[in-house]
Write a structure and sequence with these properties.
The protein is α+β, with helices and mostly antiparallel strands. The protein folds into 4 domains: 123 residues, PAS domain (Beta-Lactamase), CATH 3.30.450; 106 residues, Beta-Lactamase (2-Layer Sandwich); 84 residues, Helix Hairpins, CATH 1.10.287; 129 residues, Heat Shock Protein 90, CATH 3.30.565.10. It is built from 15 helices and 15 strands. It binds adenosine-5'-diphosphate and magnesium ion (MG). Adenosine-5'-diphosphate (ADP) binds next to α13 and α15. Magnesium ion binds next to α13.
Length: 483
Amino acid sequence: MLFRTIREENASAIAKWQHFFDHAKWGMIVCDGTTNTIELMNPEFARMHGYRVEELTGRPLAYVFSEACKAGLQETLQLLREQGHHVWESWHVRKDGSEFPVQIDATAVTDQGEVVYQVFSVQDITARRRDEDSLRESEARLARAQAQGKLGSWLLDIRNDILEWSAECYRICGLSPGSPLNYQAFLDCVHLDDRECVDLAWRAAVAGGNYDVQHRIVAHGRVKWVRQRAELEYSSEGYLLRALGTTQDITELKQHEAALLKSQQSLRELAANHEKVREAERTSVAREIHDELGQYLTALRMDAAMIGIRFGEDNPELTRLVASMKHTIDTTIGVVRNLATSLRPGALDMGLGSAAEWLLIGFQERTRIRCQLQVLPEEMNLDEERTTAAFRILQESLTNIARYACASEVSVRIEQADNILTMEIRDNGTGFDPAEVGRRKTFGLMGIRERVLQFGGESRIDTALGAGTCVHIRMPCTSGVAA
Ligand SMILES: Nc1ncnc2c1ncn2[C@@H]1O[C@H](COP(=O)(O)OP(=O)(O)O)[C@@H](O)[C@H]1O
Ligand SMILES: [Mg+2]
């Protein structure tokens, strides 16, 4: 009874094994341990080689190997016998002569030290090879693109502090590829002066911020600039898992930027110097006109008057002529005075407050636009250059108001406090669209901006169509003080 059960159980186990052998998705063969002939094979093995089972049974194992792979087969089988188990990749050949890559997993079954038979399971790895090849190719393409763009990619496993860099990242940072990395190893590449900032930025990003920083690194003793950006990944429970980032070498960009800034600065200095020379010329021409020409004209007028007094009594014709001459000379004196004033108002010598007042009175008279002026404190302590700059800005702003604003009111506020000069020129006119004006090449507003920048200050224009315009400027009253 018991014996029968065991036999039945055996029979069922054998049936299961037979089923498994017949239906396995990979090829299986059993070879003789000494002769290496194929004794047994499953249908899949025959199918993958394009044979029927009977065609291959009894053949030597080498029969299914490609010519190139037959050579090393004996050595591999020797290894298998010694180790009992061996896995390798090779090339097999089909009945039609075509070759295909395989992975072979072999086990040697021994009995009292003798290899009785060997079991091989063989997998066609054509698809895997294709995937691997295309993966390798796309990785190579990515590496090439990264090298061309000087843009490396990285991945930081935050929980385990493991950092992975692409080849380009290693190149940018001047480390040999494959050196083990973590966050600290990266930080060690950062320029000493930037390390704290970078660390702070990273901590802020981890706390839920954005990571987009530009900083210096030192690679092979050379200082480089990089831009780092990263996206953080969280688990579904909200735990921070990892960061996927990019490192871009922006050294060249920074060099161009610095050169551009330098040339911008030189241009600004040139313009400032130009302006200074122009102001000085205006001042001297205005003085010359006012003092010299004015004096001569006054003398001429006195002479004309003298002629009238001396010879005009009995000569009405002469009296009339002298009166006409005096009138012409008076008009000329007026013109000369106006010319001198427009070149450089004398009020400027009495400070910005007085000059602004003088300007606004004239403006109000000419345009009938109501003006208000507030100057704090009344006596300002401002050098000539800044006084002139602020005055010219006010002048340009008033000209714009008269030309474009259709305003009925203007208010100007000038204040000097804490060594900072602020001026605000506000009108209730039409306003304008800054974007539209920005597309045009106009020099008035640009001049305002540049004049303020010369002194390390800043300017702003608040305006919108229908909402009036306000020009704000703010600049330090002595050089070296940031606004
Ligand atoms: N206060 C203002 N009100 C309305 N429009 C203004 C005002 N100031 C400037 N603008 C607009 O801005 C433009 C640029 O001004 P500006 O740079 O001084 O150049 P320009 O006076 O030579 O046109 C003007 O053409 C005008 O359209
Ligand atoms: Mg203008």
